[in-house]
Each structure stands twice: as C-alpha cells, then as structure tokens.
Amino acid sequence: WVAPSSLEGDGQRNSGAVFRAGREVATGRGTLIHRWFEEIEWLDDGVPEEARLRTLARQQGYNQSLDKPLSQFFALLDGGPIADALQRSAYPTSEPKVYRELQIDAPHGDDLVSGAIDRLIVSMKNGKPEAADIIDFKSDDITAAEVPARIAHYRLQLMAYRSAVASMFRLPDSKITTRLAFTELNRLEHV
Fold this sequence. Notes:
The protein has helices at about 15-20, 25-40, 50-60, 65-80, 80-85, 145-170, and strands spanning about 95-110, 110-125, 130-140, 175-180, 185-190. By secondary structure, the chain is of the alpha+beta class. It has a five-stranded mixed beta sheet, sandwiched between helices. A hairpin with a 4-residue loop joins strand 4 (about 175-180) and strand 5. The protein starts with 14 loop residues before the first helix and ends with a strand. Mean pLDDT is about 85; it is low at about 10-25.
C-alpha cells in the first residue's frame, strides 16, 4: 500500500527535506490545525470554542504556546476563501454530505492508496452522489510566489485522492474537484 502523502513531489523521498530544523514543531502545528478543522462540519453552525481547541491541543500532545496558532485559526474562520469553503452555501445542492478525515483504501494505478482525506464534500441528489469536492489542508510556511511549486508538489497526492473518491462514490473524475487550502496564506487553490 501507499500513503497519499508519499506521493508528494515526484513520489521520491528527499532526506534533506525530511530532516530540517523546526520540522517537528511545524509538523505538530500542522497536525493540530488539521485536528481543529476536523471539528467543523459547517462554519454556518458556529466556530469551535477556544476551550475545546485548547483541550484538543493538549490531547494531541502539543506543548508549544497556543496563542499564535489559535489566533491564526480564528482569523481563517473569520473570512476569506477557506472560510467560504466551510460554508454550507458553497455547495448549492440540497444534500451536501461532509466527511472529515475520511479513511480511504482504494486502488491508484498499480498501488493501493491508504490514508485520510482532510475534508470531502459529496453533493447528493435524490440520495445519490452527484459531485465531490476534496479539500486538503496544508500548513506549509510559504510565500505567495511559492504556491505554484507547492501545487505541483502535492498534485500526485490529490490525484490519488480523486481516484479513491471516484471509486468509492462511483463518480467520473470530471465531477470531482481537488483543492489545496494553504492555511498560512488563507488561499484555496484548484489542483
């Protein structure tokens, strides 16, 4: 089996990229942000309470200061493209179904992809899947100029997710959108 994240870049591991200063803190912050986004089905229903987010951070073993991550997270929810994508109104179907951290095991080429999709919204019509939107949260500390390279870097991972969703929900690729949510920039980009 293959983890979707192993498909990042060209699928080859680069030891220099894996072992760099600050990676553990950045990875911990990224895991924390993912966990916080998992709390949101629809932003229309309200933002998670700060006390709940602090509890989740402790449960995750996050031992850094929470002031900056909390401030950034609430700013993301306050407006912009990521907040817009978390609104029920972003999906004009009458029956959107949200999956958060959806575990997948699906064929992708000659491999079996096993992992979790951060956020999947399946638009239903008369109880049947009609379309799907995959959102993958990325907490990379990048500049706007680096976004195109990061999109290219994550493309194979998102294509694996698309393949899995197509198989699971019997949807054609043309009915599945894939987007990267760059949390540090509050940008949502189609892949």
